[in-house]
Amino acid sequence: MVQIEVMEEEPKPAVAPANAADARSQERLDDADEIEAALSHVSRTSARLHLENLVTKLRKEGKALQRVAASKAAAASGDGAAAAAEGSSSGNDTPAPPVRSPAVAPILPSNKYQAFPTYLFDAGKYNSPTVSVYVPLDGVGGHDRSKINCSFTPGSFDLIVTDWEGKDYRLLNDNLEKDIDPETSKCVVKPNKIILRLGKIKGEYGYDSWQQLTAKKAKKRDASGKTAKDDNPAAGIMDLMKDMYDSGDDNMRKMIGETMYKQKTGQLDRDGGMGGMGGMGGMDDMMGDMGGMGM
């Protein structure tokens, strides 16, 4: 009788983790590309900023997974080469063929700007000459200064950092809450952050007071970039009173509502208060917006 010997093959090194990392990496990069392609259809600045931050995050995660996959593939190849060399030395003297690890594609600069991961606004103290924008960026102090640029106009700033970890970053705001002085504004580079010092405009009673970085409404600007003055002075008062009404507490809303009602019915003119405001032609529209004041 012939005896049959069963030979079992040695298990091959598992490569699933590397393939899984590759799949997750490609999925994130594909998501980033699709979201970036859709940015051209997004008009709101805040929405674009959120989406750009998401694109940046997805690309970072994708590249990190690429590195994990490449490292695991290289380790698996190295283990296979060592086993082959050990087996060949015991059976024959033929050297094992060299094992080459897969090359990782270099990170190429993108032609499109990326949004900075985050930035912070500091309105400063009362009557301070500047407001500040902080842009955290670890290690930016060692970056080539020629690749960090910021331009200022009376109504905007435009910060651009190029070739930072293979990407070009940009922070643009062209609808500031208040006008700034480009001559006194400056860009300061610290070891781990960039600080934009925006010079405030000094008026008759001191420097402008800022509440936020970006204006709630788009501003009209003249040829020099400064906020255009409205031909109707009452329009600015109406906007101010409406903002106070929208953001005020119940007592403030009641007081403004009563004042607006008296102005509309002519009671203020008879009482001798707030005279000369007859040109406030937007009163009816504003009263309509304040429909909940119970008048």
How would you sum up this structure, described in words?
Helix content is 38%, strand content 20%. By secondary structure, it is an alpha+beta fold. The strands form three sheets. A four-stranded mixed β-sheet has the order 1-6-5-4. Strands 2-3-8-7 form a four-stranded antiparallel β-sheet, with no helix packed on it. The radius of gyration is 32 Å and the shape is elongated. Residues 1-9, 13-18, 101-110 and 274-279 have low confidence and may be disordered.
In short:
By secondary structure, this protein is α+β, with helices and mostly antiparallel strands. Helices cover 38% and strands 20% of the residues. It has six helices and ten strands.
Secondary structure tally, helices: 6
User: What is the radius of gyration?
Assistant: 32 Å
Q: Which descriptor suits the 3D outline?
A: elongated
- Label the structural class: alpha+beta
**pLDDT < 50 runs, ≥5 residues:** 1-9, 13-18, 101-110, 274-279
Mean pLDDT: 74
Estimated share of beta-strand residues? 15-25%
What is the succession of H and E elements? HHEEEEEEEEEEHHHH
Classify the helix fraction into a percent range: 25-40%
Terminal residue distance? 111 Å
Main sheet record: 4 strands, mixed
Give a count of the beta strands, DSSP E runs of length 2 or more: 10
Strand order of the largest sheet: 1-6-5-4
